[in-house]
Every structure is written in C-alpha cells, then in structure tokens.
Amino acid sequence: MMARKKGYFRFAVEPDERTGDAFSIPGHDKSVVRTDHDGDPAGIDMDYRQCGLPIIPYADLVVLKLLGSGRYGIVYHGKWMGTDVAIKIFDKSRVAKDYLDRLTKTFWREAQILSKLHHPQVVAFYGVVLDGPEGTLAYVTEYMVDGSLRCALLEKGELDRRTKLTVLLNVASGMEYLHSMDVVHFDLKSPNLLVNLRDPQRPVCKVADLGLSKIKQNALVSGRKRGPLGWMAPELLNGRRNKVSDKVDVYAYGITTWETETRKVPYGDMDPDIIRSGVAYSNLRPAIPEYCDPELRKLMEECWSPDPAARPSFTQIRERLQAMLMALQLDIQN
Q1: Are residues 127 and 180 in the same domain?
Q2: Do 153 and 207 reside in the same domain of the chain?
C-alpha cells in the first residue's frame, strides 16, 4: 500500500489479470499497449500516438513536494506550464519482475481511460511522461489541494451538512458520467476521491484513481474479486458469477456515503474472512449510527442492497441529492 501524506493515488496490482495481454477502450481497434516478456512496454511509440495520449517532457515539469510514496511509485505536487499538477511516477525499480507486466498494463490503462474522460467531477488528465528519471514513466493530472476525501475527513473533522451533501453530489455526478462512458470504476472509496474544501461555499470533490477500472460491454463486465474488501459488493465475493454490472460501483458508493457520515473505515479491525463471508452470504453491512440523516440512511441501504437490480442508478442518486440540497437551502433561507 502507498504511504500517503495527502491521500493521493496508489498503483494497483491486478492479481487476476494475465501478464502480457493487450487491452482496449471504446473507439480504438488496437490495443493501448502491449508488454513483452521482459516486462517492458512493446510498441508504445505507435500506440500512444495512435490513441492520442498527450506527451509531456519531464523537463517541462517542476517537482515541488512529495505527496505519497509506496512500493510501486511516487506522487508529487508539481508545476506544469504554471499550473499546479499531481505527478504520478511509475518506478520500475520498485517492482518485482513478476508484477512488472501487470503494473505497466495498469499504468497505461489508467492513463488511456483518464485521457478520454472530460467532466468537472473527474480528475483532469494532462498527459504522460516517457522520459522520467532513469527511464521512469509518469502521468500528470489535476492537483487537488486538500488531497483525498479520506484525509480530509480525518484532518478536518465532521463536515457540515451542506458540504457533505455537495461532496456526495459531486461524486454521484462524476460516477454518472463514468457509467455513461461505459467505465466501471471498481475502486470507489474515500481515499480515491480528491477534494478542495478551501472555499466553504464551493466544496469540490472529484473521482480519481482508475487503475482498477474496466470498460463494460453489453451492460456487464468481468469482475472477479476486484477492489478493496470493505467496499466490494456481494456479487464480487460469492463466486456465483463471472460478469457483474456497474451496480458494483453503486454498492461502493453506499459504503463511501457511510464513510463520509461516520469518518470511519468500514468494518474496522474485523477479520477479513468474516467480512468476506458476511457480506457475500449474510447481508453484513456497516452499522449506520442513530444520528444519521434519515434520507442518507435510506440512500445507503438502497445502494448496498444485496440485489444489484434494486440499487439506484447514479442518475437517480444525483437527483435525490440535488433535492436534499435544495431542501436544505430553503431551510437556511427560512
């Protein structure tokens, strides 16, 4: 796991993926990147140009401070063309050879998917760096001054109701857009949501960290135990199906709403095997505190329904949160 100062991105390993496979996204007939048997990208020059990934020379970046580091990479706050940015460096020297192909594949997948997404509530992608120090790869994204929602919840304490609803609305809007683009996130949780809470009148939250995301086809996507345990939907854990719907993200959104309400980690120190079996077979869910707003309680319970078809869409979630915010504004004015 990555040690974070501000809760910025991590580099995800996909243990169920075969190394050396090609992958693609809608609108492109050819794969984004292929890896050879030594774990180095093969055909990158052709693929990144074909897929339209903007290239940023490392010399154009000014590295300012470390945001987080871990086994697979480092994230810095920096400047590019006078703009604050986050620089996510993929350091091959930190990666065991057995994982290099998978991590390289994940890096290029996330860069390629991010490059095709343009929405106010999805972190903006600026480009990839091919000539980093000692041959490292990197990509450059929008910088969010308060880091992850998780860190903000821990450092700033409980959010006021308006800020909380605005943050949740932002996330729902970003996820509604991702699903409209046939992208299933698979890793939605507070550490992967970036925030700027400096202006109390205009809190901003954006969806980030698409390293585990997948493109759905015919409304379904392969999902064998993808994502963090506490946020994983029962259909990902019970082994009953190879294909799942985008409602796995709605389930994770329900857990993330609970995080925002309680500022806790789901299931705390509970044994992982108990969590896994409880969620998959016994309808185990985090305990909602008594003080929780009734509307948010209802939303959480619907989002983490054991039946994916019973969970609301992100369009429905967005509309409900907009109504909650409007009602709150009327209460304040009166």
Answers
A1: no
A2: yes
